[in-house]
Amino acid sequence: MPRRRIGFWYRFAAVLCKPPLVVLLKRDWRGMENIPAEGGFITAVNHNSHVDPFAYAHYQYNTKRVPRFLAKSGLFKKGFVGAVMRGTGQIPVYRESTDALSAFRAAIDAVESGECVAFYPEGTLTRDPNGWPMTGKTGAARVALQTKCPVIPIAQWGANALLPAYAKKPSFFPRKTHHVLAGPPVDLTRFYDKDMSPELLKEATEVIMAAITRQLEELRGEKAPEKPYDPREVRIEQRRRSAAAQEKAREKEGQGQ
């Protein structure tokens, strides 16, 4: 299956983005041999800085297998940004869709056409206090199981030193290093040809996230927490504590009357 041509718009975006990235970030890029030379595939990437999509895209661009990102559909309607998004073939995600699989139909079509589709399975910047990957959403697993394509786990670290997650001001000095490590394809064969139940998708997603985390452990030279940060569990616990505090305050108020 042929690879996607880079094309004018991707080259134009590279001309704009590569010079500042080269100036701001040194590069420690590894694992490019694990990027398939031909055929459709998915990359599953961790997310710890607003800068890292550009830094990761630079890495992926240099493999000659340009990625197609999933992005909010609204970005495709905004002037120059929209023109670049459309021209580079990025994939709009219509969040109002009630059919989870149809929201990724374009991603499935792209993979089946021999292209690379990049997923950030966490769905947002990590909220783990130490920058480790959180629990993932099931979109990448859905597309992977539908297409049976290779899933390449990619860990990155260092763009977050330039601009930490949720920070507003970058730290330019000293010059930071962007570390990337792409691993071998994740083995999802045991999930093939089965009903894509929520439980199966959750388990497949956990396998993908564990592979990304192992790559990041190698980059950072340290062990990740045994249990990944789960924003849903944290929100539930915060609501429980808030409700308990309110109940305690009401009891105290009642005792004072």
Question: How many extended strands?
Answer: 7
Biggest sheet architecture = 7 strands, mixed
Rough outline: globular
Structural class: alpha/beta
Adjacency order of strands in the biggest sheet: 1-7-6-2-5-3-4
Number of helices: 8
Region (Disordered): 219-257
Pfam families: Acyltransferase (PF01553)
GO molecular function, one term: acyltransferase activity
Biased composition (Basic and acidic residues): 219-240, 247-257
What keywords describe this structure?
257 residues; alpha/beta; seven-stranded mixed β-sheet; 8 helices; 42% helix
Please tell me about this protein's structure:
The chain has 257 residues and is an alpha/beta fold. The chain is built from eight helices and seven strands, in the order αββαβαβαβαβαβαα. Strands 1-7-6-2-5-3-4 form a seven-stranded mixed sheet, with helices on both faces. α5 (139-147) crosses α7. It is globular and about 75 Å long.
What's the arrangement of secondary structure elements?
Blueprint: H1 7-24, E1 25-30, E2 41-45, H2 52-62, E3 67-72, H3 79-87, E4 91-93, H4 105-112, E5 116-119, H5 139-147, E6 151-157, H6 159-162, E7 176-182, H7 198-220, H8 231-256
Parallel strand pairs: 1-7, 2-5, 2-6, 3-4, 3-5
Antiparallel strand pairs: 6-7
Helix pairs in contact: 1-2, 4-5, 5-7
In a few lines, what is going on in this structure?
The chain is built from 8 helices and 7 strands.
